[in-house]
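Suppose a colleague, Dr. K., hands you the sequence of a protein chain of 299 amino acids and asks what its three-dimensional shape might be. Before reaching for any lab equipment, you can write down a predicted structure in token form. Begin with the sequence itself:
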Amino acid sequence: MHTTDEKPELTILHISDLHFGPPLVHEVAEEALRSAHDLAPGAIVVSGDLTQRARRDQFQAAKAFLNRLPKAPTLVIPGNHDVPLYRFVERITNPLGLYKEIISDNLNPVLRLDSAVVIGLDSTAPRTSISNGRITPRQLALCEQSFAQVPEGVARIVVAHHHFAPAPDYLHDWTMPKSKRAIMRFVELNVDLILGGHLHRAYIGNSLDFYPGSHRERGIIIAQSGTTTSRRGRGREQEKNTFNLVKIFQNRIEITHYLYFDVRHGFVPTSRHLFRRSQCWLDPGRLETNDAALAMGKK
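The predicted structure, expressed as tokens, is then:
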């Protein structure tokens, strides 16, 4: 896979859907850790479903895994499996109690880095839609406040467990209710990238594939990670494991999709996706530079 010599401003390791508990594949989890250290990312994003059934021992095992990741700024959010499904009273009265006790009490974290601001949104909705999730107007207001003072050129990234757009395949997943409202707000806020999980298979594309809207020049890159460490892959990634590596440059974003191969006993890069950053469409100087970089990447 050809790469240029240009160094990215930031590299983000994006993993998701760990599912500590019976679905976890321990040898894959170990290889995910090895890959994480080999790639040496500048930041790490974990987009939900750390556990299978939100049990204390599963959260403790997930926490031990997180502690073994490279020492880089890390953003973690919960997923619907981090809410107790069958412990009904707990699901209603204290749905993320164990997550807050063991993983983090901040359910909507904001990670501020020199070259990016990453906002994590808790999309779990234990009392209304445990599977499809929700993003509330209050969370959209948090995004507006958090991005308000972000300088030009700093990447704006949103992370949510549930998907704002369906994967373009035969499984026909339902998206979050009010997804279009959220996407349109993110477009107005000049969000560059949305990271998510939940689908248990990867999708890397653009919001314009699903939500045309009125800002055709400012679609948002969407990168869904499959399940990184469990046997719960779906669709073409059935029983497969994946993660994404995001590289942010001044004028483009590159996302490399990694897939675990049994024959290699490890994760292997299988595809690389190049996108112009949104501001490059509007700045002729950056656009010219970006065209040269994209041409080099396609050689």
